[in-house]
Structure formats: structure tokens, C-alpha cells
Amino acid sequence: MPLSGAFLQELEGIVGAGGLVRTFEGRLVYECDMHTFYKGAPDAVALPRRTEEVVEIVSLCRRERIPIVPRGSGTGLIGGAMAPVGGVMIGTNRMDAVLEIDLPNRCATVQPGLINLSLTRAVASRGYFFAPDPSSQMVSSIGGNVATNAGGPHCLKYGITTNHVLGLELVTGAGEVVRLGGKAADRPGYDLLGAAVGSEGTFGIVTAVTVRLLHAAEAVKTILASFTAIEDASEAVSAIIAAGIVPAALEMLDKLMIRAINEGTGAGYPKDAAAVLLIELDGPAAEVEAQGERAARICWERGALEVRVAADATERALLWKGRKEAAGAVGRLAPTYLLQDAVVPRSKLPAIMRELIAIGTRHRVQIANVFHAGDGNLHPLILYDDRSPDQLERAKAANEELLRACIEMGGTVTGEHGVGLDKAKNLPLQYGEADLNFMYRLRRAFDPDSIMNPGKLLPSHPACGEGFRPARPRVPDGAWI
Amino acid sequence: MAIGPDVGGPDLDEIRKCVHCGICLPQCPTYRVLGEEMDSPRGRIYLMRAAAEGRVGLTETFRRHIDLCLGCRACETACPSGVRFGTLLEATRAQLRRGGPPARRRLLEAFVFSVFPKPARLGAALAAFKLYNRSGLRAVVRASGVLRRFPGLAAMEALLDDVPAAVPLPEVVPARGRVAGHVGLLTGCVQRHLYPHVNRQTAHLLSLAGFEVVIPRGQGCCGALELHAGRPEAHAARARTLAAAFPADLDFIVTNAAGCGAAMKEYGHRIPELTAFATRVRDVTEVLAGADLRLGPLDLAVTYHDACHLVHGQRVRLEPRQLLGRIPGLRLVELGDSELCCGSAGVYNLLEPDMARELLDAKLARIAESGARVVAAANPGCLLQIAWGCRERGLDVAIVHPVELLARAADAYQD
């Protein structure tokens, strides 16, 4: 829907000519995020710097019933930061200031466009860090992390984004500025903060985030263990957790992924291994030492080819660089891929890996694997060439089958990437009619005119108030989430 | 107008290696300044792809986003998929140049490309400038305000504070002591005229390290400026002339200018018969890092700025730091954002003075924070740009090529 000249003029009056992208070429590059499968260019992109500007933009769009799509760094994997029905995209990346660092209270308040890693860099010299570390942390924004309730390798021990957000300033879809949560440990009333984290821009736009900072551990040990069979690596994961060790991170990579990463980053993962585990332990030095020895012994007992401890900070950084750039390195294997984010109970890891290999063979697709083994959170990358319609169809079929297999094993459709446009259709696998209807009503409380990020998070439903009819039966009660 | 490999445009397979992950974004200077997707590497590749697929024409807006790229290649260092962005950029610019430069840049570009890559003409132009500088005409011109109307010209005028006298180097500098090898030295166009002492000191250090240094006359310019501006034919002609000027039996061809080194190491990409030549090209710091060099003490706090085409174009990051670290008494202080472009980028600071200025300001702020009194940078463009900025800001910092510090340390060495 093209925007009227008068509307654009008003918008320009708010953010200035330099804060508004109107050209065809400019809008085109905002048509997708990292999930390039879904494309939809906005009719304009506004790049505000202050909360007041965001309020004015939202109020203007509400008055004219123009959809709004928030966007941070555009690194999402769910088709969240694209405009399926056009409208105004609000890019938060010029709002990237650190507003306050409050070390006595172990927290910081930042604007939403601040890059995740920049916050840790700002406080690292004083011994602190911001725990949520999605693999995109060198580019993804904290606002985007909040919107998708992002996870990351170290969430196994430290928890996901929601465990680290103390307060939010939110401009709701009605154009009101509300403050949710705060520095104090407990707050009377409803936990609206919990509801807003992970709301994917459907409640409004976050304009400031107060996050918890943690004190860096005394010692860190990173262990690389390689295996000749992916099942052995999966069993080692279960055994490590069963032994009462809670690693800071426990990641698995398969052979195909190892190849891409070695070519890309030169991380030096063992190239003949069928699977590699990256185990990180942190805490008091003596504890880390003892747990490191036990974890290594478990890996040897499960038939490890090699168990190697990173000798210094440089080697450790290189091992992690390889892991964090994994999804980016896949360009070396294929031009396009479908990336899943499904979760299975950890005990089902060996079974789902067997199933995954079978699915790949059945549909004749290559599947590269990199995942948070400790959480049972899988990230299979199903490779295809988008110039071949046949390959795309096979990749999609494999993808569907894989998702179903995870649900059947008691898992969920998404672990940490969020729902977006991509998985909204899968939500009925997880939730019943009443559950979804309640979520619609909650959304309307924040965004009365349904202008905020339409089509994302919840499956599109009939006209307002009619409620939602699930297409498929829900997952049995007691399923693992 | 079409774009794509069959019409001499960027290689579509290379474009398709980009999986849109965005890891390049924070490393891109123009994205850092503007915060706009279309002025990021990911956005530019997306535009190239859209053009190749016929979704967007080679419009003025398209050209604007491509022109604004510095070609610093920081995105290549960041890219996990190994997209060779520099190559894509050169090919896209070549496509855009088919219709000539945009009107507002036409005069300036014509001047730049008729002078810079031709050492003799650059020498003549600089001699005229020297006259201009000494005659008092400079004061008149500056007072007239004419420079305000031509920001590109103003940028160039400001860069050149003083021009040293050019003394030609001998054609052969013999090795001192045991001969470790035979190398050729590129004298370059800008380096030769503005920093002749850096060339002399480079030859001196190589000689001390046991290398016989051959400095052929008539080697000309490496052609990097033309390649980056989308003039591949002119670049290829210069590359062939340059390679032919050096004897085929040299161990290495050594350069002390990062931009030249990066272009020469990649000659083989475009001109297959120069592949063997290209594999012998080395930055001076690569050669010296492995050599036996005796260095005396220098009591200095030095910070090191990574020239883009050394750190990103050639992936030479450790050698200059290791060499400086070998100088007794020298304290090497890390520079914040040392890998972010200073805005010089060949002739970019003349063609895009506003963006160049923003980047220079950021660089100067980091330099001031470092507390160092000396900044070392291994490329003449960076030296000119940062020196100008420091002068203008009244920052009491000396800007030198690492070779200058090494030469002083070698002189300070006593048995």
C-alpha cells in the first residue's frame, strides 16, 4: 500500500530527511532479514534516535492505520524483521547508546539498537559481562534479543534473555510510553515484563532496556572433544549432564558444519571427526579444574578420538569464533538453506540424530548440524539451491518431517529464534484454542488497532474477536517444553 | 542496463555466497556512520544481486550507494562465507563507469586519474603545488573562499602540507653482510613523491637484513586506484608494465604501501599470466618480520593503525606489531577500532570528503584516547589523512610509517 505524500511529509517532519528511507533501492534492502526466504519491502523506513520520535511515529501510524514493523540489526532467523504487508519499518539501529552503567546494582540501561557484544565490551574491563550470547551477538541488537527472547550457547547455565532483563521502556501500539519492571528485585502487580520479552514487536517498540550484568567467573576452561559417530557425542552430552556437571555451554557440530567452519574461520576443528563437542566450564578455579577432568573422562569413555583443552584465551576465542560464525559460513556449502530451531528432550538426542540422518537420506538433501546440545535445541540447516524448484520442494518436505519428529518426541517448534512469520503456522501444534485466543486478547491490550508487526508470532486469524480454530490437535499434556 | 557476469558485471556465484547473516555490518565504516542497510556490505551485495536479477536498474541511487563504499574490505575479514566483496565492488563499478562518472564528480575524477597514477605528472603537479605553497598564493586561495565551493579540491589542498624534495634511489642497493636474498622494491606513485625517505629507509632496512634490493626505473604505478574506480583496462595495462619492469629471478617484490601490495598480490585474479609475479609480492613488514635485524632502543609510546589494505586486503596484522614490539624501550599501545578505515581510502577523501571527514574524526578521537605520541601506519594515504587531521585539530602526535621507526631503531643499535 503506497503511503500518501502528506503522510510521508509528516513522517519526515518527525525524523528528518536523513532519518527516512523512501527510495525504491533503499526500501528493497530492508525486504528481508537473515531469513531471506520471506520477502516484503516496507513502504518507508524510519530511523529515529529518541523515544519521543518513536512515540510520534507510532501515533501517526495509528491515526492512519499504517502497519509498523520494528527492526534491529536484521539478523533474525524467523522472518520477523520484514514487512509482509508493507507499512513503516522502524529501524532502531541509530538508538545505540549506553544510557547508564550501574555496577553497584549490577545492571545497565541501554537503547535497543546497541549491539549485544558492545555492552559486554563496555563493562569487560571492570570484570562484568552481559550473559545472553546469541551466535549473532557481534551484530544483533539488544532490542532484537529482547523481542525474540534470544538464547545462545551460554544459556545452558545462565538462562535466556528474559532471565537478564530487569526493565523495559515500551512505546505501545497505542503510542503510550509504559515502563515495565525496573531495577528493584520485586514489583507489585502483574509481571508484564515477562509477557513483553519475546513479544516480537507485537506489543510495541522497546526504547530502553535495563539488563542484569554478571561478574565474570574466576576461571574458564574450553574443551574440544571429537567423535567418530554422532551418537557417541550425543551420549557423552547426556552423560555429562547426568554426572551433575552444568557446563556454561555444551555445543555440538557435525562433519559438514565442521568443514564449512574450518574453511571460513580457520578454527582448526578436527576435520576427520563425525561430530565435535565444545564444552565450556566456568566458575571457581578448583571446581572448573575438577569438572574439566570429569567431563574429559566421560568423553574418553564414550569413545572420543581426541579431547583437547584450549591452551589460552586466543585459542578459546578462535574455537568460539568458529562456532558463532557457523550459520554465516554455510554460504561455502550452498547458497540457501532452511534453518530449524526445534527442541527435543535432551535424552532424545541420539534418537533424533538418527532420525535426522534418515530424513536427509530419504529426501536426498544435505543437512548440516550445529546445536546447543546441552539444551536439546537443534539447528539443522537443510541445504538447497534456490535455482532448483525440485531441491526447494525436497528441502521443505524434509523440514516438515523433521519438525513433526521433534514434536512426536515431546519437543517444541522453536527454542530460541522466536516465531515470526516462519513458525506462526506451527503454533497450533503447541497451543490449544483457548491458549491462542488468550494471547490474541493480550496482544490487543497493548496494540488496540493491530498495527504492530502484523502476521508475526500468532497465526493469522479470522476477523477480530472471532477467535481461533486450531487446525491440528495440540501436543499431549505433559509434553516436554 | 544490465549487470551480471555475462556483461562483465559481478560474478553471480560470488554474490550468492552471501547468506545475509549481517556479521559484516558493524565492521563497515559507512554503516557505522549512517546506520542504513543500503550503505552496508550486506545491503550493497543485495543491491548488486537485485540488479543482476533485473529487480533494480543501475539508477543514480544505486550508484550513490556503491560510490559511497570505501573499498576498505573490512567486510571480507568479517565474512564467514568468504565473499570477496572487493572483487564484486570493482566489477560493479566497472559496469557503472560505462556511462562515465556522475556529473558532480566528472571534473575531479578526470583530474585525479590524469595525475595520480603517473609518477612523472604527479611529481610535476606537486612541484607546482610547492611553488603555490611557498609563493603565498596558498594564503590568497584559502582566504578567497574558493575552496569552499570545491570540497574535493579543498580536501586535497589541505592534505598536502609540504612536499619534500624527491631524490631518486639507486637502481641497486647491495646487501650488507651475508646475502639472504634478492628483492625488488616498488617505489609507488604517491609514496615516491610524498614519502621518498620511507622508500630510502625501506631499501636500507632490507639491505641491513641481508637483501640485495633492485629498484627498476620505469616501473610506473600499480594501477590500484584505477581498479578501485572501475577502470579494469587501465589497471591491467599498468600491471603488465610494472611486472615486466622487475627481473623474473627476484625472491620477492617488496612494497611499503598497503594499497599497492593488496592490488599486486591480486594481479593473478584478473590477469592469469601475472599469477607467478603476484605470489612473490610481499609487504615490507612480512619480509622484515622473518629477518635478522638488529634494533637499538627508542623511548616512545607508539600506537598502530591498521591500514585497510594491509589488514583486510592482505591479512597482515601481526607482523608490523611484532616488529615494533622488537624495538627495545618502545611501548606499543593498542588503538581502539584500529581496523576501522581512517577515511583516506585511495582518493576517496577527495571524492567523498564528508564521509571521509566523519571517519577521520572518529580515528582522531581514538588516537587521542590512546595517549600515544606517535602513530604508525603502513600506507601513504593513511599517513596523509591522519597527519592532516592531527594538524588541523592541533593534536601533538607524529604520524610515521613503521619503517621510519625501524630505521631509527636500526641506527640506534650499537654493538
Topology diagram in text:
The complex is a heterodimer of chains A (481) and B (415).
Chain A: H1 5-15, E1 20-21, H2 24-28, E2 44-46, H3 51-64, E3 68-71, E4 88-91, E5 98-102, E6 107-110, H4 116-124, E7 128-129, H5 142-148, H6 155-158, E8 165-172, E9 177-181, H7 192-196, E10 204-212, E11 214-215, E12 219-227, H8 230-242, E13 249-254, H9 255-265, E14 275-283, H10 285-301, E15 306-309, H11 313-324, H12 326-329, E16 336-339, H13 349-363, E17 367-371, E18 380-384, H14 389-408, H15 433-446
Parallel strand pairs in A: 2-4, 3-4
Antiparallel strand pairs in A: 1-2, 5-6, 6-10, 7-11, 8-9, 8-10, 12-14, 12-15, 13-14, 13-17, 16-18, 17-18
Chain B: H1 12-16, H2 29-34, H3 41-52, H4 60-67, H5 74-78, H6 85-97, H7 103-115, H8 119-135, H9 137-144, H10 146-149, H11 151-159, E1 172-173, E2 181-185, H12 190-194, H13 196-208, E3 211-214, H14 224-228, H15 232-245, E4 252-255, H16 258-265, H17 267-270, H18 275-279, E5 281-283, H19 284-289, E6 301-305, H20 308-311, H21 318-325, E7 331-333, H22 348-351, H23 353-370, E8 374-377, H24 380-393, E9 398-400, H25 402-412
Parallel strand pairs in B: 2-3, 2-4, 4-5, 6-7, 6-8, 8-9
Antiparallel strand pairs in B: 1-3
Helix pairs in contact in B: 13-25, 23-24
Write up what this structure looks like:
The complex is a heterodimer of chains A (481) and B (415). Chain A is an alpha+beta fold. Among the domains of chain A are: 5-91, Uridine Diphospho-n-acetylenolpyruvylglucosamine Reductase, domain 2 (2-Layer Sandwich); 98-215, Uridine Diphospho-n-acetylenolpyruvylglucosamine Reductase, domain 3, CATH 3.30.465.10; 218-329, 2-Layer Sandwich (Alpha-Beta Plaits). Chain A has helices at 5-15, 24-28, 51-64, 116-124, 142-148, 155-158, 192-196, 230-242, 255-265, 285-301, 313-324, 326-329, 349-363, 389-408, 433-446; strands at residues 20-21, 44-46, 68-71, 88-91, 98-102, 107-110, 128-129, 165-172, 177-181, 204-212, 214-215, 219-227, 249-254, 275-283, 306-309, 336-339, 367-371, 380-384. In chain A, the strands form four sheets. In chain A, strands 15-12-14-13-17-18-16 form a seven-stranded antiparallel sheet, with helices on both faces. A five-stranded antiparallel sheet of chain A has the order 5-6-10-8-9. A four-stranded mixed sheet of chain A has the order 1-2-4-3. In chain A, a hairpin with a 4-residue loop joins strand 5 and strand 6 (107-110). Chain A is globular. Residues 462-481 of chain A have low confidence and may be disordered. Chain B has 415 residues and is of the alpha/beta class. Chain B folds into four domains: 5-97, Alpha-helical ferredoxin (Fumarate Reductase Iron-sulfur Protein, Chain B, domain 2); 103-159, no CATH class; 172-289, Rossmann fold; 301-412, Rossmann fold. Helices cover 53% and strands 8% of the residues of chain B. Chain B has 25 helices and nine strands. Chain B has helices spanning 12-16, 29-34, 41-52, 60-67, 74-78, 85-97, 103-115, 119-135, 137-144, 146-149, 151-159, 190-194, 196-208, 224-228, 232-245, 258-265, 267-270, 275-279, 284-289, 308-311, 318-325, 348-351, 353-370, 380-393, 402-412; strands at 172-173, 181-185, 211-214, 252-255, 281-283, 301-305, 331-333, 374-377, 398-400. In chain B, the strands form two sheets. A five-stranded mixed sheet of chain B has the order 1-3-2-4-5. In chain B, strand 8 (374-377), helix 24 (380-393) and strand 9 (398-400) form a beta-alpha-beta unit. The longest helix of chain B has 18 residues, at 353-370. Chain B is globular, with a radius of gyration of 21 Å. Classes of the chains: A alpha+beta (481), B alpha/beta (415). At the A-B interface, helix 2, helix 9 and helix 12 of A face helix 3 and helix 4 of B.
